[in-house]
């Protein structure tokens, strides 16, 4: 073994720890967006396999990949908490990056939903862990926001993540575990949080300065509340098609079309991991119509379902290819986004 310039022989264990600490320190919580996108696509395929009788376990392969990514990220964040505590504290205190920390719990609940058909006990245990983390973080972060004196430039769609995404996913997974009544309570928390925050975000977009390129991918989260809420509503209500769920999907389509209109403007951010923010909303937009078809819906939903399913698959495939390219080219760990 080589001896360093000080004359001491390096300890292999210390070298390994240093490498892990370095990677963990540069892994932002926003990367859990990959788990949301992959889990969302896996759930869309589960719905498609039941409704259209297509695929041959494709959903389970996608969900298995989501579980692997989730496990790697959980390990890295545990290492970050121990070996790079200062980096974690900085991230938690960042006005934009902080909200992504809530994705750790949300992603864990989605993996619980993936595991539940194989082991109810494992699914329930993961759900409890994810729910507790999500609930504690959402209350802590919301309380901090209520202090006021926030820079309007840092107001982005990531504000939805702690309460809206957390509540809607709680509603969906709680229902899959057999607790629809508790899921209905979570759905209420999510939908009213969404409506309250949406007005603040639209005021910022309409009246504030133009969002800088580095922050534009966060607009992908703007797509999520309506379709994620639709999936949650289908779960807590039993799945029968009605006007309200159609309205949620309709608003999601409006958000999708507006974001497509902004595609050139959004691409000024370059190829960055932040674009995974679009994946959960897009895959939920695919899941909700397909699940409604499975409950006897037709007409407009029968037209929407195959289109949104195709677009969701195309998006996640593109994001996956981009991620592999960023990783191989050494560009996956870019500078954290700032409001400047």
Radius of gyration: 20 Å
Distance between the termini: 46 Å
Tally of helical runs: 13
Question: Low-confidence parts lasting 5 or more residues at pLDDT below 50?
Answer: 1-15, 335-340
- Give the % helix: 55-70%
SSE string, helix = H, strand = E?
Answer: HHHHHHHHHHHHH
Assembly type of the chains comes to: single chain
Kindly estimate the percentage of residues that lie in beta strands according to DSSP. under 5%
Average the pLDDT over all residues and give the rounded result.
Answer: 90
**Category by helix and strand content:** mainly alpha
Major sheet: size, sense and barrel closure?
Answer: none
Q: Strand tally, please?
A: 0
Overall spatial form: globular
Describe the structure.
The chain is mainly α and 340 residues long. Helix content is 69%, strand content 0%. The protein contains 13 helices and no strands. Helix 6 runs antiparallel to helix 7.
Question: How would you concisely characterize the structure shown here?
Answer:
By secondary structure, this protein is mainly alpha-helical. Helix 1 packs across helix 3, helix 2 runs antiparallel to helix 3 and helix 7 packs antiparallel against helix 8.
Task: Describe the SSE topology.
Blueprint: H1 12-25, H2 33-51, H3 58-83, H4 85-93, H5 103-115, H6 120-145, H7 160-176, H8 180-207, H9 225-237, H10 243-261, H11 263-266, H12 279-294, H13 300-328
């Amino acid at each position: 073994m080589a001896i360093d310039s000080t004359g001491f022989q390096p300890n292999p264990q210390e070298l390994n720890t240093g490498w892990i600490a370095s990677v963990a320190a540069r892994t932002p919580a926003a990367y859990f967006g990959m788990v949301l996108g992959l889990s969302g696509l896996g759930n869309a395929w589960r719905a498609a396999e039941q409704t259209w009788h297509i695929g041959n376990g494709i959903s389970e392969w996608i969900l298995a990949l989501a579980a692997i990514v989730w496990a790697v990220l959980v390990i890295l964040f545990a290492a970050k908490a121990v070996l790079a505590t200062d980096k974690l504290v900085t991230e938690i205190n960042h006005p934009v990056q902080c909200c992504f920390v809530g994705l750790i719990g949300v992603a864990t609940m989605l993996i619980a939903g993936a595991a539940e058909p194989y082991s109810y006990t494992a699914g329930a245990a993961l759900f409890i862990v994810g729910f507790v983390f999500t609930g504690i973080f959402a209350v802590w972060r919301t309380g901090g926001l209520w202090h006021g004196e926030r820079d309007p430039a840092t107001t982005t769609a990531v504000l939805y993540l702690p309460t809206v995404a957390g509540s809607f996913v709680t509603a969906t997974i709680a229902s899959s575990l057999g607790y629809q009544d508790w899921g209905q309570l979570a759905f209420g928390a999510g939908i009213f949080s969404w409506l309250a925050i949406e007005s603040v975000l639209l005021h910022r977009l309409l009246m504030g300065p133009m969002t800088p390129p580095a922050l534009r991918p966060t607009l992908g989260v703007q797509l999520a509340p309506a379709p994620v809420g639709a999936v949650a509503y289908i779960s807590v209500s039993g799945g029968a098609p009605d006007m309200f769920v159609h309205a949620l999907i309709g608003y999601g389509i409006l958000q999708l079309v507006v974001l497509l209109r902004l595609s050139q403007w959004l691409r000024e951010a370059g190829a960055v991991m932040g674009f995974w923010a679009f994946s959960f909303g897009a895959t939920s937009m695919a899941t909700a119509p397909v699940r409604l078809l499975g409950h006897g819906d037709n007409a407009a939903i029968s037209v929407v379902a195959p289109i949104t399913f195709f677009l969701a698959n195309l998006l996640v495939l593109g994001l996956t290819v981009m991620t592999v390219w960023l990783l191989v080219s050494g560009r996956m760990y870019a500078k954290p986004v700032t409001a400047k």
